[in-house]
Specification:
Elements lengths: L5 H9 L6 H4 L7 E2 L5 E5 L4 H6 L6 H13 L6 E5 L13 H18 L3 E5 L1 H8 L10 E2 L5 E5 L2 H6 L3 H11 L6
Parallel strand pairs: 2-3, 2-4, 4-6
Antiparallel strand pairs: 1-3, 5-6
The structure holds uracil.
Uracil (URA) binds next to loops.
């Protein structure tokens, strides 16, 4: 368990050497958005642009996420964005289980500090990190023991590579508007 405030957590992330990913990272990527969000989006790991800017979803997938957030009708105060991993895996490979486990205390501490009403898991990696197993259906929300509504939808990068996913994603969002409206 990581104690202290948000600034302490950020410092801990910046000096983390728990796995080897920090060796190749230009910047750890911590969060963007509100510090008091209703909705928290959780992605997978920084890509090349995020590694350079230090800002989650600041590249191509970020454009898709912004479009999705526009479609949801959210304003900047409503949401925050974080990733399962804070450091970029080489060549954007999938995070390893061990990396997810090493980074998980940071993820859970961020969730605790941000204290959202709704968590939106962007794809399977976010789900596996959050629940330590797979248990969700796409677009079917559940409520945790802590009273947080959790929803799994497609990762924004899937909208780049599979354009047919855009309409499917809109359907998932439309079905769940009651969670944030
Ligand atoms: N993909 C992610 O999951 N996170 C980012 O920050 C960028 C791309």
């Amino acid at each position: 368990m990581i104690d202290g405030g948000f600034e302490h957590l950020e410092k801990e992330i910046r000096k983390c050497a728990n796995c080897s990913l920090h060796e190749g990272a230009t910047n750890p990527v911590i969060m963007k958005g509100s510090r008091d969000p209703n909705i928290l989006f959780i992605g997978e790991a920084p890509g090349k642009t995020e590694d350079m800017t230090g800002i989650p979803f600041s590249g191509r997938a970020g454009k898709k996420l912004d479009e999705m957030i526009g479609y949801m009708g959210l304003s900047p105060d409503d949401y925050a964005v974080i990733n399962v991993l804070k450091c970029r895996p080489p060549n954007n490979r999938k995070p390893r289980k061990s990396e997810i486990e090493q980074c998980k205390p940071f993820l859970m501490a961020q969730i605790r500090f941000l204290d959202p009403r709704v968590i939106i898991l962007l794809g399977n990696t976010a789900e596996e990190a959050f629940f330590s197993r797979k248990e969700m259906q796409w677009g079917v929300p559940l409520v945790t023991d802590e009273g947080i509504s959790v929803l799994k939808i497609f990762h924004p990068a899937a909208m780049i590579y599979q354009r047919s996913r855009i309409d499917e994603q809109k359907e998932l969002l439309d079905k769940n508007r009651h969670l944030w409206e």
